[in-house]
């Protein structure tokens, strides 16, 4: 049985309008990354048999909506949370924070801690007190296989992140966790999730 979230979500048109408006405020490759994340989330959710593909699509589409406030690192997660929470889209707001933390520890963030001390403490508290559900895991995975140019393998996305932010003491465990999440959804869908995107992944590596 599919899992449908009970709260209200924006319509597809409203979600796209939010993304387009955010891109107009801060244009960049993050918009195409978000579109590909949304596509991946919808496909995997549809093959899961229990996740809501439309909800998953909107979560993927808006997970980086905090970038509407300008170029930032850690700050974009809490900016997105505030923006969507203000409109009472609680699950979407939650994803803005959770997608960057497959490991629930703020030290594992790849990038600068450029938010206020109050927001930093808020994120720490969120991670300490939030138990992830399947949608959190799904968007963490889809974020990790989505580049602006399309859907890719985790290793390529890892290279992309490292090339921009460097490799630190937490990188290995963070990306190992993402592989664990992939294996979970491989099991859920009955095949490597890469097989769902064979036409887009040109490496010849599917499992």
Please tell me what the overall shape is.
globular
The total of beta strands comes to: 2
What structural class results from the helix and strand content?
mainly alpha
- Beta-strand proportion: under 5%
- Main sheet properties: 2 strands, antiparallel
Describe the protein's architecture and organization.
There is one protein chain. This protein has 207 residues and is mainly α. The chain contains nine helices and two strands, in the order αααααααββαα. A two-stranded antiparallel ribbon has the order 1-2. A hairpin with a 2-residue loop joins strand 1 (146-147) and strand 2 (150-151). Helix 2 (30-48) crosses helix 7 and helix 7 (134-143) packs across helix 9. It is globular, with a radius of gyration of 16 Å. The model has no long low-confidence stretch (mean pLDDT 91).
List the keywords.
9 helices, two-stranded antiparallel ribbon, mainly alpha
Topology, pairings included?
Layout: H1 12-25, H2 30-48, H3 53-62, H4 75-86, H5 90-98, H6 117-129, H7 134-143, E1 146-147, E2 150-151, H8 154-165, H9 171-189
Antiparallel strand pairs: 1-2
Helix pairs in contact: 1-3, 2-3, 2-7, 3-5, 4-5, 7-9
Sum this structure up briefly.
The protein is mostly helical and 207 residues long. It has nine helices and two strands; from the N terminus they run αααααααββαα.
């Amino acid at each position: 049985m599919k899992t449908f979230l009970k709260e209200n979500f924006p319509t597809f048109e409203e979600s796209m309008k939010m993304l387009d408006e955010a891109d107009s405020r801060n244009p960049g490759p993050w918009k195409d990354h978000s579109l590909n994340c949304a596509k991946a989330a919808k496909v995997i959710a549809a093959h899961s048999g229990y996740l809501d593909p439309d909800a998953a699509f909107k979560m993927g589409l808006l997970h980086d909506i905090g970038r509407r406030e300008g170029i930032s690192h850690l700050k974009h997660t809490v900016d997105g949370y505030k923006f969507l929470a203000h409109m009472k889209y609680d699950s979407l707001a939650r994803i803005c924070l959770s997608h960057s933390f497959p490991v629930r520890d703020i030290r594992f963030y790849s990038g600068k801690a450029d938010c206020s001390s109050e927001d930093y403490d808020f994120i720490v508290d969120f991670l300490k007190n939030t138990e992830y559900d399947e949608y959190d895991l799904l968007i963490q995975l889809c974020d990790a296989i989505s580049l602006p140019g399309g859907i890719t393998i985790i290793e390529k996305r890892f290279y992309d992140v490292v090339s921009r932010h460097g490799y630190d003491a937490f990188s290995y465990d963070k990306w190992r966790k993402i592989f664990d999440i992939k294996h979970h959804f491989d099991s859920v869908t009955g095949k490597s999730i890469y097989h769902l995107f064979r036409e887009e992944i040109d490496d010849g590596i599917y499992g």
